[in-house]
């Protein structure tokens, strides 16, 4: 019998090389059939060697990676880059060609302003202000350009006397005038808008709506003397310092109507979706708060003990017509002060426009207890109860008396490649 009938399927040298290559790569490959030997006793040494190679390949144990590359077919975890397989991706003949194309793409993205400076900037661009509806007077005009600022600085430096005073530390500036000029600028309105978004004020007040504060409003608490605790944008004021009604000032025409609200965004102990209304004055004529109708009397912040800082917000609305709101006939208890700002705005959105805001943060102090007792209420106290979980003992080489199963609880739960799955 001829040699062609001894070995079937591997008569060409290229097939033998392919077989050896798969064998060297440690992957198991499948064959359609085994060697068919007519007479084992008449085999040559070369035929015996080829048969031993085929037997070694077909009986070799599977590699740990076997089937992982074909996760979609075998139910294993899919490779992270599988979504790019078969895609028409760009190919570069050399590394220099890649650098040229990358530089060309960088210049294009810079012209289109697609280069994100920080992750926060990217998040605000895609998920921040884009989903919010403007319910105010619109976005303020663009800020002063960098070129204009440089020209202004050059003009100031031309004053030799002013520059010499600045170098010697003798130049004096009126801080009040500087702050008044800045707070009346469009740049300040944009920064206040960003700060309010950062603290989640707009989201908790109006849902997916916001506004740019075009009007400057000053709020301050007197301490019984000449000192005033001002309200800025997130500064801390204790409840005892805010025990009396604050002074609110703003610029207005004599025939304009306004509404002022003071809200606690975090203090409602009965409904998390509502705020507490601490002060409400409506139909204010001009800039005189005393001319308005007091709907809810002033009540100092009452952050319960153990609840951390609460955001106390002052909102100023401009009215196109008078509001007909029935005031409370008597000092209302705390549960009657539950208020939802977004519902109030939806009810009167054709009559009121938000123009300004200020807010501060307040935490519990001893004065809160006395106010609760004056309202014939028990003071709520909250305490953090830690979860009853196992904790690692002080650092040792290995926790004594603990098994590996116990230690596995504290191991990370990230996906492990190439086997897939996780520790837990």
What's this model, at a glance?
With 424 residues, the chain is α+β, with helices and mostly antiparallel strands.
Plain-language structure description:
The chain has 424 residues and is an alpha+beta fold. The protein is 30% helix and 16% strand. The strands form three sheets. Strands 5, 7, 8, 9, 10, 11 and 12 form a seven-stranded mixed beta sheet that branches. The chain has a three-stranded antiparallel beta sheet with strand order 4-3-6, with no helix packed on it. A two-stranded parallel sheet has the order 1-2. A hairpin with a 5-residue loop joins strand 3 (217-222) and strand 4. Helix 1 packs across helix 2. The longest helix has 17 residues, at 95-111. The model is unreliable at 1-37, 68-76 and 419-424 (pLDDT under 50).
Distance from first to last alpha carbon = 62 Å
Task: Catalogue the unreliable spans.
Answer: 1-37, 68-76, 419-424
Class inferred from helices and paired strands? alpha+beta
Helix % is 25-40%
- In total, how many beta strands? 12
Main beta sheet: 7 strands, mixed
- The Cα radius of gyration reads 37 Å
Question: How do the strands and helices of this protein lay out in sequence?
Answer:
Layout: H1 13-24, H2 45-58, H3 71-74, H4 95-111, H5 119-128, E1 133-134, H6 146-157, H7 160-168, H8 175-183, H9 186-198, H10 201-206, E2 209-210, E3 217-222, E4 228-231, E5 233-236, E6 247-250, E7 257-264, E8 275-285, E9 293-296, E10 310-319, E11 338-339, H11 341-347, E12 352-362, H12 366-374, H13 404-407
Parallel strand pairs: 1-2, 5-12
Antiparallel strand pairs: 3-4, 3-6, 7-8, 7-10, 8-9, 8-11, 10-12
Helix pairs in contact: 1-2
